[in-house]
Amino acid sequence: MEKSKLTLAIVFVFFLTNIAVEAQELWYGDPNKSVKSSFRRFDSGNAGDNCSNQSNNSSTATTVTDPEYGKVWRIRKPKGQKRGEFARTTGTVNSYVPKDGDVVYYGWRWKIESTPNINSGIAVWQWKTDASNQNNTQNYPLNMGYGNGKLSLSAWGPCYPSWNSCSGSISQRMTVLWNKSVPEDTWVSFVLKIKMSRNKDVGYVEFWYNGEKQTLTNSGFQDYKVKLSADGKRAYHKTFDGTVVYPKWGAYNANACNFDVSAYYDEMRVAKTLGEATPSGTSSGSNQPPTVSITSPNQANYNAGSDILVNINANDTDGSITKHEVFVNGTLVDTDGDTYTPYLITNLQEGNYTVKVVVTDNDGAKAQDTFTLNVTSENMPPVVSFIQPSSNLTVQEGYDIFVEATASDTNGSISNLKLYIDNQLVRQENVAPYEWGHDGSPNPQEVNGLTAGTYTFRVVATDNQGITAQDTFTLTVQNNDGGSNSCSFGTPMSGGIAAMDNISYTNVHVLGSGGPSLSNFREFSIDWDPIYNGLYKFAINTNNGVPSWYVNFSDTMSYQLQNASPEVTLSNTGFSGLDGSYWVARDGDSFVMVSKTAGYTLYFSNNNQAPSCANTARRDTVNKDSFSFYPNPADKSVLIQNIDPSVYEIMIYGINSQVVKKIKAGKEDSISIDVTSLKNGLYFIELRSSKEGTRRYKMVKN
């Protein structure tokens, strides 16, 4: 009898133990079941998701057999579609709903491939919020992005009372917690530990990549950053918002429209423990392979007889590199031990060459990189093109433009560029930047003042061996008294639109004839960020709620505002006569939309006085700032001061237009740049600003 009781007790304890173990896994995205078994839905395209190159092919979620991991999920988002995403872990069979106060682990294995390769960032995972019956201050508290071979994890700060009510771009509230180079078509695994809380000092996130816990940072932040633990392994952040939060896996955003993306998922789990959430086969104790990249040579074409130095950048995060090998066309030509000495290939003859570098770490793992060279006996011609404007341009009499060209020579150097208008020489430029008609030109009006007619602008580049190349564009000058719309305000413009940080206008003037009726207009607002090519708001408020009190066209319109001839196309606006295509421009502080097909202009202003159209050609310019740098000439370093906050990148060019220094600017007022490695000669400092475009200054290195 006592033995029976003991046996029953053991069985009962074992049964309870099994229940406890099984309960550690809260949800599993089972590829052996249907999508709806594990996910609430698959988003293949929501309202307003249309791409400018919209495809009729829908995004799909299927399973495929992977040679390494067996049956896995595959999301395929075709080119011309904006979205393909699994949404919410609330399926009919497997279901888990995140709750405020939960501490859980989200784990999965992932790889991505695309045609063409993804060269601009797309969202591949989102921790989304749903407002429902209350405001959500974060559209997505967390997300992961992928582009240019890099994967990143970012946190997004809140905005009150709702996430889209603050001035400025939403990206100003983003901070990058982690990023890493991850090649396409490469399986990697993740685990995210999330403490869910509406309190930014209580909620947190921790992150494991390929089984190793990662150190998190605040990178690239502007208006928001997280609080990090002392060891950097935990980021405190508001992780619960709105009514509910939930994960989304896939490919999404406007950039995704340009790519045919396939994303693969395996062992998708939500669990209470790290061990349960970590995909099988992931071990933090496994050796990580080394990395290597060839840094020199860095150009593809050379003349016969050239000497080429092979230099590399190699690293091993969990050990050391013990061997370096250099191969040319498959033949081993150099071997080094733990220290690499750059290898010189001398007197190359005509032909094609593949340089391969292989490194081996202390555990025997290898990595390699290759570079292909083309050696010719003849001089390669230079390459030249106009960049301002970058295509044919139509303007009104009295226009004001400047012209800029860029040139390069793969196996020599650029001697000069000459600009011609209808075969008449304007002026020769001997050093980059190659510009005509700017404020610092010998004659700032050298490309302006042409009367009505058609003119051919031609730039001719000559290299150091006398070989030439050319590019052309056509400038059409229209008579101000002719055409259907005299209020064209210099459109199409020769440059893009500078940043407009949540600017609003209380007046609209419909100039010309045939324009829309905007009698119920109350306010127009625009939020445009040229750095990210983001048009976050292009909206009209009405005074009578027709077609709505607030109508934002930014998700349904198409636009090109970064480059020459900026334009927008509106459709299904709900305003009679407003649909159509427009050239756009700035006129001082005002914003102008000039109909391409009819004789009217929409002039948005904070002045109730309608403008005169007599001055119809203006640049989108800004006032000069107090920027300065010294010493000049410079010897060891140059100090750049009074940097405008809108400057996001600083470049230094040689006289052959080759970039020799690139610095990402933050909020610093001043930056010191080491120039000791530069050869003596003339250089150009270029400031790239989200508000003021590009400015260049000459610098001499002694």
Structure commentary:
Strands 1, 3, 4, 6, 11, 12, 13, 14, 15 and 17 form a 10-stranded antiparallel β-sheet that branches. A 7-stranded antiparallel β-sheet has the order 2-5-16-7-8-9-10, with no helix packed on it. The N and C termini lie far apart (100 Å). With 702 residues, the protein is mainly beta. β46 and β47 form a beta hairpin.
Question: Main traits of this protein?
Answer:
about 5% helix, ten-stranded antiparallel β-sheet, about 700 residues, mainly beta, globular, single chain, seven-stranded antiparallel β-sheet, disordered N terminus
Helix content range: under 10%
Averaging pLDDT over every residue, what do you get?
84
Residues in β-strands, percent: over 45%
First-last Cα distance: 100 Å
Helical region count? Answer: 3
Per DSSP E runs of 2 or more residues, the count of β-strands stands at 50
Shape: globular
Output the structural class. Answer: mainly beta
Major sheet: 10 strands, antiparallel
Q: What is the alpha-carbon Rg in Å?
A: 30 Å
Weakly predicted, low-confidence segments: 1-22, 614-625
